[in-house]
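#struct-pred
JK: can someone run the complex with nicotinamide-adenine-dinucleotide? inputs below
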Amino acid sequence: MQNIFVTGGAGFIGCNYVRLLLEKHPNYRVIVFDKLTYAGRLENLQDVAAVYADRYTFVQGDICDAQMVEATIQQHDVDTIVNFAAETHVDRSILEPDAFVKTDVFGTYTLLEAARKLGNLRYHQISTDEVYGHIEGDQRSEEGDKLHPRSPYSASKASADHFVHAYHITYGLPITISRGANNIGPYQYPEKVVPLFVTNALNDQRLPVYGDGKQMRDYQYVVDHCEGIDLILHKGEIGEVYNVGTGQEMTNLEMVEILLDELGKPRSLIQHVEDRQGHDRRYCMDVRKIMALGWEPSHTPEEAIRATVRWYVDNRWWWEPIRSGEFRQYYERVYGNRKVLA
Ligand code: NAD
Ligand code: TYD
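RT: done, structure tokens with the ligand placed:
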């Protein structure tokens, strides 16, 4: 393993992973392949480009473009693909599912075909706990469970997982899949709940909590997730799926209270609004399989929330330009006419 093709490396988790990969493996070369959608940003990697100029290459391209994917893989003698590239926001998938099917399903298929044709390359797929769907009571999703996706986003990610598995069974492609819980931390586009709420609160804007706010999530620190991905890439069993999360859950309201306390902002900023269509009430995964590989998270969800809040407080240069761009039209579309609950 030496020349790693990281798709979606200019996005939130991808850029954190690229940093970790280059720091941890001094003999690796990293080729980031990214379309630079609204969520992909070169400034996420500007320090990487400066520090690791000799081992890091950026290529702007679409994972649905087979010709370009194959040419780039050949040109850089790639032996390993890690696929982060995706459309990732549930609310956008409700408004416009089209791009989700294209990138998350067809794009994954395109990468799998390239991996198969160009010498059965090592392939790792970044997936999500959302493919399991809403989890009842105190149950936890295990890797072998049936998938029950319920949003256009999770349906496209689940479909990708099935393709990855099928390429392993049918063609013997050496694959692994990781299913991550909700990530938070540096460089997350402020459409996702934690950075949205921190940046709203810093601007003294209300925090739109969907429905009763009692939905449960496992908020994990992005760097912990990246450590898990790296372990699976190197030590995971080929053909296997691994859940990656803290295994600890909290309600969205609990998350908001920690966030506001860390900022020193009042609870009166909370505003309950009309719920998301088809909203999954609870995700919760069993993470014993990756822990048996020797991984454990370094942050509890509460520590992850507090560290994330501090990063946004310290890095206005990063998010202020985003919030004044395309984001404004998006915000108006999702929240402009949303009913406020009593
Ligand atoms: P993100 O939206 O921040 O970044 C996605 C990146 O993919 C961007 O850089 C974008 O430009 C790129 N991209 C989109 N379409 C592309 C295409 N057609 N070709 C090439 N590049 C393209 O997403 P993220 O939160 O960093 O998520 C990364 C991966 O992790 C996704 O596969 C997502 O499903 C998965 N995941 C995310 C979370 C989370 O909480 N954010 C949790 C579990 C799994
Ligand atoms: P999100 O960050 O979109 O991640 P996901 O839906 O993929 O888990 O949302 C996390 C939780 O926060 C989810 O239960 C929906 C909720 N949420 C709100 O209450 N208000 C918001 O404005 C957003 C974006 C999310």
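RT: quick notes.
The CA atoms of residues 99 and 328 lie 20 Å apart.
The radius of gyration is 19 Å.
JK: thanks, will look after standup
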